[in-house]
Amino acid sequence: MNFDKEYDASGLSCPLPILKTKKALADMASGQVLKVLSTDSGSVKDMQAFAEQTGNSLLATEEASGKFTFYMKKK
After folding, report:
1. Active site includes 5?
2. What is the count of structural domains for the chain?
3. Dihedral angle at the C-alpha atoms of 1, 42, 19, 48, nearest 10 degrees?
């Protein structure tokens, strides 16, 4: 999937992946896509809730070998 910016939150635990995602999105234009990498399994539900609460679109969630990848489109 194409993305405009990437943030690696690997090694960070809740709530840091969400806080760092929020900060990364703040610097982006509407419609751009942020790729977030995380090793925190709790970030799966957190990212879904964050997207619903903020109106940003969670385009995809992938998991491979304990690493989670999220693609979020800024509203």
Report:
1. no
2. 1
3. 50
